[in-house]
Specification:
The structure is a single chain. The chain is mainly alpha-helical and 238 residues long. It is 42% helix and 6% strand. It contains ten helices and four strands. It has a four-stranded parallel β-sheet, covered by helices on one side. Helix 1 runs parallel beside helix 3. The radius of gyration is 19 Å and the shape is globular.
């Protein structure tokens, strides 16, 4: 039913904007509650038939590919460890699954943060999730199994250096990111400096691995020198 509804909506949008040159995107909800449980009850209740035996996001990605629409997903700033343990939440596992679905179907993926964050840790997680590496063949077989917390070896396997994405990893790049949200708090001095640092690194293709929040904070402090402050001030008064 959800897929049929999506097909009708995307078909209508495609018809309205055909020939206009507009690039369409559609939002898919990030229902990460109970993602780590066998039942995936929250997703099923919302109409996403995602279980241990059925990948519920692959058909959605195929639908977006059919209509040449960008798939816009959320949760980019979230970590599993920050969620209530009793709810078996896994925004990281969910985002990984959706990312894999877009890779398999060749549909463009865009991202956004779900919660308002102005801290270096949130920015580091967004940068990490914007450059997720493909699973190997063994990982892909277990993508819908129960989620387990990452052990120390997992964090060691992530990128340890802030560096531009390699051209061979082009499929792992998101095509756009929407930052939520612009308000008075965002323009407070420290918040604005962190945001300018974040935008600069995202535009240059920077990547951060798990557990690199401290290095992110160091980068931000180091970058908050005269030229960055001047850039930030110029943008604020533009």
């Amino acid at each position: 039913m959800l897929l049929a509804h999506g097909d009708r909506i995307l078909s209508a949008a495609e018809g309205v904007f055909r020939g206009s040159g507009a690039k369409l995107s559609g939002k898919v909800a990030g229902i990460h509650w109970h993602y780590g449980s066998k039942s995936h009850a929250a997703e099923l209740t919302a109409g996403y038939y995602n279980t241990r035996q059925s990948d519920g996001y692959l058909p959605i990605a195929r639908l977006f590919k059919k209509h040449r629409v960008v798939l816009n997903f959320t949760c980019f700033e979230m970590k599993d460890e920050e969620q209530p343990q009793h709810a078996r939440c896994s925004p990281e596992g969910l985002l990984r699954q959706v990312t894999e679905a877009t890779r398999k179907t060749g549909v463009a993926l865009a991202g956004e943060n779900a919660l308002q964050r102005f801290d270096g840790g949130g920015y580091a997680q967004i940068m990490h999730n914007s450059n997720l590496k493909p699973r190997d063949s063994n990982d892909s077989k277990s993508q819908n199994s129960n989620l387990k917390p990452r052990d120390s070896n997992d964090s060691k396997s992530q990128n340890s250096n802030l560096k531009p994405r390699d051209s061979n990893d082009s499929k792992s790049q998101i095509c756009a990111f929407t930052y939520l949200r612009m308000n008075q708090q965002m323009f407070q001095s420290d918040n604005w400096h962190r945001f300018v640092w974040f935008v600069r690194n995202m535009s240059e293709g920077g990547a951060l691995g798990h557990g690199e929040e401290d290095r992110c904070q160091t980068e931000i402090k180091f970058s908050a020198d005269a030229y960055l402050r001047n850039d930030a001030a110029a943008l604020m008064h533009a």
